Amino acid sequence: MSIERLLQHFAGDQPMTILDLGCGKGKLVDWLSAQGHDAWGCDFAGSSVSDFEADLAADDRLRPIQPQPYRLPFDDGMFDCVVSSQVLEHVKDHESTFREIHRVLKPHGISLHTFPSRHVFIEPHVKVPLASVVRNRAWLHFWAWAGIRNPYQAGKPAADVARLNYDYLHAHTHYLTREQLLRHAKRFFVAAFREDIFFLPGAEETKQRSLKKRLFVLLGGDRLRIRLYGTFVMRALYLRKQPPSD
User: Fold this and answer.
1) pTM listed for this prediction
2) pLDDT tens, 103-155?
3) 212 φ/ψ angles, rounded to the nearest 5 degrees
4) Is CB count within 10 Å lower at the N or C end of the chain?
5) Widest distance between CA atoms in the chain
6) 20 forms bridges with which residues in the sheet?
7) What is the CATH number of domain 3-116+175-203+234-240?
8) 192: left (phi over 0), alpha (psi -120 to 50) or beta
9) Is 32 within 8 Å of 12 (Cβ atoms)?
10) What does the buried/exposed string (b/e) look like for 15-25 if buried means 16 or more CB atoms within 10 Å of the residue's CB?
11) Checking DSSP bridges between strand 105-116 and strand 190-193, what pairing results, if any?
12) How far is Cα 117 from Cα 210, in angstroms, rounded to an integer?
């Protein structure tokens, strides 16, 4: 599902000032700009979980995040909306991240985040089953021995793959429970999980629906289908900033 469809669902069709948090090389920023939005992006330069490069900062719309203390490189109240795709599973300090999102949003601004579930069957970065929750060396070595590799590990010995996956998962992923995420988010926002957005009708999905979507559509009951998809595939977190009361 495209960010544009999410924005239309939650905010209508009007042009907005949008921040892509974890923008990489800025492809989504370029696309949102082409759709008429005032789009900006930020990411960590030189991070192994990002393809953001230091020279991208020459484009003022793509800016490096200050890591210590953590701060987004934008003024207070600048954005109507902050979005991210497959970013929250990498965040180590969710409270600081949500605080900064809150700071750069305008009053009544919204924030939309899609990311893999903590119980996703295939961890999307290392491609190992259940590695979002089972990440000990024996488990990772078994799957490396069985031939499981991500695209960057082709041809590497099993011991090297297991070590790389162990180091990556422990250093660069942080899969929180639903309750933990909501507890952090609700300190700053009205917050809710909205996995129903993955089942919004769309012409492209009517013609060609993914195998996962077809599987979950066969399940009975909208509420059950949405809950299972959010538990075992992808999550969607919706945040809304409330202005201070007078």
Assistant:
1) 0.88
2) 999 999 999 999 999 999 999 999 999 999 999 999 999 999 999 999 999 99
3) -60, -45
4) C
5) 62
6) 41, 83
7) 3.40.50.150
8) beta
9) no
10) ebbbbbbbbbe
11) unpaired
12) 18
